Predict the 3D structure of the following.
Amino acid sequence: MRRKRRALRKPQPAPGKLEKLRTFVNTAAGRRKREELGTPAELGRWFKHRGLLGDDEKLTLDEHASAIAARRNLRSILAVHNGGGPNPEAVEGLAELLVGMRFEPRLEADGSVRFEPVSPGILASLGKLLAIVAVAQNAGSWRRLKICADPECGTAFYDTSGKATWCSTRCGDRVRGRKFRRSYKGRRLRTGGREGLAAVFGLEGGQAE
């Protein structure tokens, strides 16, 4: 039995620090949304504002390219969470990034252990984001972070129900509307418009009087 697709009323934030990663992958997503991290300076301000980069650090063009590639690979993985096909290149890209990172264990006040990235520059910033992924995986919330199934949207959202396909009801309505228009146009091409008229006016046999 085919599972009915569902949509949320509006894009949902993710719990805890996972929201920080959701906003990162959404810096170049959404309908008519501009690129927010187009330059090293813009990327640096974004990371500094969220406590992911030191105030005195400046990013290079190569570091900027690494961050944009990481964002693209993360988006590909989140699309898989929503029924998309696997992307081995995206996984390999993030794996290569992790090879260059160094993490050190930190003991929290409650006795739990977290791993703090200690690599320089952009590697530390991206390491903090990937550390959030590890925590979310253990908490069972990682696979609920998805990319909207509407290809014209692409917004990352947190699926609170575990069954949502689109980030909002508006995107779901758009997708269904596009499918209906394509289907209606196809019927008109096949029948010269008679079938479409019959559907509109409730006529049988596809003939209009």
User: Anything to note?
Assistant: The chain has two domains: 14-159, 172-201. The helical segments are 18-25, 40-49, 61-80, 88-99, 121-139, 169-191, 194-201. The CA atoms of residues 194 and 206 lie 5 Å apart. Strands lie at 6-7, 103-107, 113-117, 145-147, 156-158, 164-166.
